[in-house]
């Protein structure tokens, strides 16, 4: 693959990843604090169900494209692409080892706190 399309792919995927994390930090997290707990837990459960596939694909594409770019480029471009690879892999590890177990606990809380209707 030529460096220009590869660079564009690396920029696109890392930009999508940063945008997803930024949107969550700027919009979702503050909103969670302003809604009832049960609504928050139910929304969080569904959001994580949808995010699991898309975020993993974006992270994989970002890591792979940055890694390949680090291999094929030289000098400053190589250093920047390698640093981007490390950061993407770091975000994956934090997500996989930190967020995923937390999300599983939140899913369990949502089930426990669901209102039980007796007819």
Continuous helix count = 3
What percentage of amino acids are in beta strands? under 5%
For the CA atoms, what is the radius of gyration?
18 Å
Low-confidence stretches: none
Could you walk me through the main structural features you see in this protein, from its secondary elements to its overall organization?
The chain has 119 residues and is an all-alpha fold. It has one domain. Helix content is 88%, strand content 0%. The chain is built from three helices and no strands. Helix 2 packs antiparallel against helix 3. The longest helix has 39 residues, at 75-113. It is elongated, with a radius of gyration of 18 Å. The mean pLDDT is 87. Keywords: Membrane, Transmembrane, Transmembrane helix. It holds the Pfam family Anthrone_oxy. The chain crosses the membrane at residues 53-72, 79-98.
Features:
Anthrone_oxy; transmembrane helix; 3 helices; transmembrane; membrane; mainly alpha
Report a brief summary of the structure.
This protein is an all-alpha fold.
Please render the helix and strand layout as text.
Elements (H helix, E strand, L loop, with lengths): L2 H30 L4 H36 L2 H39 L6
């Amino acid at each position: 693959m030529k460096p220009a399309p590869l660079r564009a792919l690396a920029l696109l995927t890392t930009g999508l990843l940063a945008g997803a994390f930024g949107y969550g930090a700027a919009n979702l997290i503050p909103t969670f604090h302003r809604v009832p707990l049960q609504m928050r837990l139910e929304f969080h459960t569904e959001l994580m169900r949808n995010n699991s596939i898309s975020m993993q694909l974006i992270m994989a594409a970002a890591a792979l494209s940055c890694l390949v770019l680090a291999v094929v480029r030289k000098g400053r471009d190589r250093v920047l692409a390698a640093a981007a690879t490390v950061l993407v892999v770091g975000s994956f590890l934090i997500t996989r080892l930190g967020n995923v177990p937390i999300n599983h606990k939140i899913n369990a809380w949502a089930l426990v706190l669901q209102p039980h209707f007796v007819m």
